[in-house]
Design a protein that fits this description.
The protein is of the alpha/beta class and 137 residues long. It has a single domain, classed as 3-Layer(aba) Sandwich (Rossmann fold). Helices cover 53% and strands 17% of the residues. The chain has six helices and five strands. A five-stranded parallel sheet has the order 3-2-1-4-5. The longest helix has 15 residues. It is globular and about 35 Å long.
Length: 137
């Protein structure tokens, strides 16, 4: 079974029907059917909550988190080894702190990272990347 990690903005793509939502929806559907093992990093929970809170308020953020937690996703929380993996990725590549943890999650699970963030391009060849269409201005 293939492992797939959804980045924060893959979740937003699905929740907000952005470009790429169909691809994320297909991954979630495959997970419900047991065809893929769907994962996400603990940092995505925090990012989903603070971004939605800033944009639409606390109630909307709480509803989003509740909805995400109902999906067939395994949340990988931090441990010493994941911290070390994220630190190595952050030191060697131009990625944010949060993205280093998301990438370390994908690396640990040998998973394809489904994302919308051009920052992950720096990790091509290091982890498996599945970019979604990016938002246009």
């Amino acid at each position: 079974m293939d492992n797939v990690v959804l980045d924060t903005f893959a979740w937003f793509a699905l929740a907000e029907s952005e470009p790429g939502a169909d691809e994320v929806e297909a991954q979630v559907a495959a997970a419900w059917l047991g065809r893929v093992s769907l994962h996400a990093s603990f940092v995505s929970l925090a990012e989903l909550q603070y971004i939605r809170t800033n944009e639409q308020g606390t109630d909307s953020a709480e509803k989003l988190i509740a909805w995400v937690k109902q999906q067939p996703v395994h949340w990988l929380h931090s441990d010493d080894a994941l911290c070390g993996e994220a630190a190595k990725l952050k030191a060697a590549h131009k990625v944010s702190f949060a993205d280093a943890f998301v990438a370390a999650t994908a690396q640990r699970l040998n998973a394809a990272l489904v994302h919308k963030d051009p920052e992950f391009d720096a990790l091509a060849g290091v982890i498996k990347l599945h970019p979604l269409p990016r938002k246009t201005a």
